[in-house]
């Protein structure tokens, strides 16, 4: 190799050439004004003379003349040419070696600085002068002075490439389009938060979701991860199995409508410990009807976005797993577990988690719901017993079921009529005695203040649980005044009467509330009650219909066959008008006077003479059993009555007498202020 060729090779590998004028190191054009300012600075640095008046700073090719006039550097879009005249070849090489760091030198050997530009160096075989060294220093200073737009950009390509590699290593999931949904390739065990409503199934691997393990052997499940509630968290728990066939996975992917290129991309990154999950759009008429009548938007605007945007993490409530929930491992088929705590401490979340865990060990779980204001499987306004056979992933209004036993509670504000509430619960417990050898979970209400501890203690003596889980909040106003030990329960149960046939011997377990960490808007009691009512009637009324629509199925009931009950009525005058357009419980009397079995709910569409017209999803066989239509403290959401309709007339009565705080006409709700 000749000396000329060796010099050219050295320059190509070690000289960091500035980009063409007007082009930043990232390859983007600088603003015109900023480009002119930088050119002026560069010309002032290279020459002590003023800028010649005929120098065009806006021209595409920039020519910078040094005071020596022997060095001319030309930048253009097509090539970068460096012409040098000097006297010392050795000094030239030495100066370059001292101005270039080893890391930059190694980098330049691997990657060209500007791959789109052909770089050509013409070095005449002449001596180099000392002026050239200062000029080269100036050029190097020019590169370091570009701090306006290149502070983050002046990281060399090595650091950029390393950053890209790190991002790839952090990537835990890849999403692919498919028929009616998306496919998720989960590659590590990071938490993945879901958003929206969809059907979820596993093609390969296994995942953990709210206490339940899903694999390719489990059935497709419905997911409701909605705003106003804690977003559900999915985690890959697959350990890997080398016995799986690639052909089986590929055929299943093709069956789901995944393109061939996406299948190839999946298998280029595939490992046996990965999981592949399918999310399909959920055809559900319930959610649109619910959102139509509430003031908040709870589902994502884009139904195809099943993953929660990481940029929104600070503004949403994430489901927080509590290690203390491992207490569920102590439960067997003869266990009777009661969950207590104040309002909003996470009783419902713990209940669902325990249900899902137990369903992996047992075929069914009995849930006795003693919260008339926030019922888990029914419309509020009753206490019930429900046998659950499928895992649940969503708020209460998304998984309403027909209960095995159900007792109507006239007033959901238990503090107004505590004796009546206790009678309803005792009646329900008697009816549940027929259920044997089935794990039982009791969901208690959140009334903890005043004589709430007295009511709770009385019912604990009647329930006689094997385990009592007391969830404690950092806000003392949400907690009972004392821990519910056996001694405390016996002491405080005297107000309403202790069960004489029960000996208390339960294990008290204190659990910390995870709801104290919630930072964003959360659906409150009134809103969730309205959602449950709307969800229940969405079985017969969709979002395009109103109460007066002719497409809504109606039942005609002879008033001689049923008894109308409304304890608020002080007189029989206008009695039928009070029932018109109101929510009624479809009941039969129990063997205890004033206690009703509830078989469902209906809306009185109208009363005409001896005929009452009813809207209800209850089947005809069950309606034949109904003997009483009872009005309680639960009313229809105001938006159902005020919805725009073609019919014109007076709004009917919806209640009579003093309103309780639970059924005031709600004010319009607004979005909460975001935390800055």
Automatic annotation (TrEMBL):
Record localization? Nucleus, Nucleolus
Question: Which residue intervals define the domain NOL9 C-terminal in the entry?
Answer: 553-637
Q: Which residues form the Clp1 P-loop domain?
A: 341-490
Q: Which GO terms describe its cellular component?
A: nucleolus
Q: Which residues form the NOL9 N-terminal domain?
A: 175-320
An example of a GO molecular function for this protein is: ATP binding
For the region Disordered, give the residue spans.
14-65
InterPro entries under this entry?
Clp1/Grc3, CLP1_P, NOL9_C, NOL9_N, P-loop_NTPase
Which UniProt key words apply to this protein? ATP-binding, Kinase, Nucleotide-binding, Nucleus, rRNA processing, Transferase
Q: Where is the composition biased (Basic residues)?
A: 40-51
Its domain of life reads Eukaryota
The biological processes this protein is annotated with in GO are: cleavage in ITS2 between 5.8S rRNA and LSU-rRNA of tricistronic rRNA transcript (SSU-rRNA, 5.8S rRNA, LSU-rRNA)
Q: Does the keyword Nucleotide-binding apply?
A: yes
- Pfam families (UniProt xref): CLP1_P, Cupin_NOL9, NOL9_C
Gene3D superfamilies documented for this protein: P-loop containing nucleotide triphosphate hydrolases
Family of this protein: Belongs to the Clp1 family. NOL9/GRC3 subfamily.
Q: What is the official name of this protein in its record?
A: Polynucleotide 5'-hydroxyl-kinase NOL9
């Amino acid at each position: 190799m000749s000396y000329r060729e060796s010099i050219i090779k050295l320059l190509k590998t070690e000289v960091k050439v500035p980009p063409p004028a007007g082009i930043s190191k990232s390859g983007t054009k600088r603003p015109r004004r900023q480009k002119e300012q930088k050119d002026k600075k560069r010309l002032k640095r290279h020459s002590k003379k003023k800028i010649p008046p005929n120098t065009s700073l806006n021209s595409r090719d920039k020519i910078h003349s040094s005071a020596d006039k022997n060095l001319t550097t030309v930048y253009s879009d097509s090539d970068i040419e460096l012409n040098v005249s000097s006297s010392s070849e050795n000094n030239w090489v030495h100066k370059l070696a001292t101005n270039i760091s080893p890391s930059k030198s190694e980098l330049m050997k691997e990657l060209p600085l500007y791959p789109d530009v052909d770089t050509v160096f013409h070095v005449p075989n002449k001596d180099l002068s000392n002026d050239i060294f200062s000029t080269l220093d100036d050029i190097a200073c020019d590169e370091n002075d570009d701090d306006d737009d290149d502070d983050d950009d002046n990281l060399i390509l090595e650091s950029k490439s390393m950053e890209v590699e790190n991002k790839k290593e952090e990537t835990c999931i890849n999403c692919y389009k498919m028929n009616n949904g998306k496919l998720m390739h989960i590659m590590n065990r990071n938490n993945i938060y879901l958003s929206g409503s969809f059907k979820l199934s596993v093609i390969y691997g296994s995942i953990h979701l709210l206490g339940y393990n899903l694999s390719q052997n489990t059935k497709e499940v419905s997911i409701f991860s909605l705003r106003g509630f804690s977003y559900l968290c999915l985690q890959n728990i697959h350990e890997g199995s080398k016995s799986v066939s690639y052909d089986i996975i590929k055929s299943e992917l093709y069956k789901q409508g995944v393109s061939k290129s996406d299948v190839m991309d999946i298998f280029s990154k595939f490992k046996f410990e990965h999981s592949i999950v399918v999310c399909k759009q959920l055809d559900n008429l319930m959610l649109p009807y619910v959102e139509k009548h509430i003031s908040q938007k709870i589902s994502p605007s884009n139904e195809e976005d099943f993953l929660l945007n990481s940029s929104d993490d600070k503004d949403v409530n994430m489901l927080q797993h509590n290690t203390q929930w491992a207490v569920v491992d102590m439960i067997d088929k003869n266990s009777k577990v009661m969950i207590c705590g104040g309002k909003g401490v996470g009783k419902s979340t713990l209940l669902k988690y325990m249900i899902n865990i137990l369903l992996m060990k047992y075929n069914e779980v009995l849930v006795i719901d003693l919260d008339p204001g926030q019922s888990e499987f029914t419309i509020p306004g009753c206490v019930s017993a429900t046998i659950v056979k499928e895992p649940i992933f969503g708020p209460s209004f998304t998984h309403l079921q027909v209960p095995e036993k159900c007792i109507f509670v006239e007033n959901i504000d238990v503090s107004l009529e505590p004796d009546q509430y206790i009678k309803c619960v005792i009646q329900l417990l008697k009816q549940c005695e027929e259920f044997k050898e089935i794990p039982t979970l009791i969901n208690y209400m959140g009334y903890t203040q005043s004589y709430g501890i007295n009511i709770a203690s009385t019912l604990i003596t009647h329930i006689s649980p094997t385990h009592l889980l007391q969830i404690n909040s950092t806000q003392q106003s949400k907690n009972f005044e004392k821990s519910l030990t056996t001694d405390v329960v016996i002491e405080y149960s005297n107000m309403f009467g202790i069960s004489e046939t029960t000996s208390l011997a339960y294990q008290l377990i204190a659990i910390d509330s995870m709801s104290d960490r919630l930072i964003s808007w959360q659906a409150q009691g009134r809103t969730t009650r309205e959602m449950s009512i709307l969800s229940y009637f969405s079985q017969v009324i969709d979002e395009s219909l109103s109460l007066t629509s002719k497409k809504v199925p109606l039942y005609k009931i002879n008033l001689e066959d049923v008894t109308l009950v409304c304890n608020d009525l002080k007189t029989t005058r206008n009695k039928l008008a009070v029932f018109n357009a109101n929510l009624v419980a479809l009941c039969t009397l129990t063997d205890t006077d004033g206690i009703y079995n509830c078989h469902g709910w209906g809306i009185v569409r109208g009363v005409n003479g001896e005929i009452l017209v009813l809207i209800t999803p209850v089947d005809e066989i069950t309606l034949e059993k109904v003997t009483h239509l009872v009005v309680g403290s639960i009313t229809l959401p105001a938006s159902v009555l005020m919805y725009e309709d073609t019919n014109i007339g007076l709004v009917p009565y919806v209640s009579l007498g003093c309103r309780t705080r639970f059924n005031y006409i709600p004010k319009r709700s607004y979005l909460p202020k975001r935390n800055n």
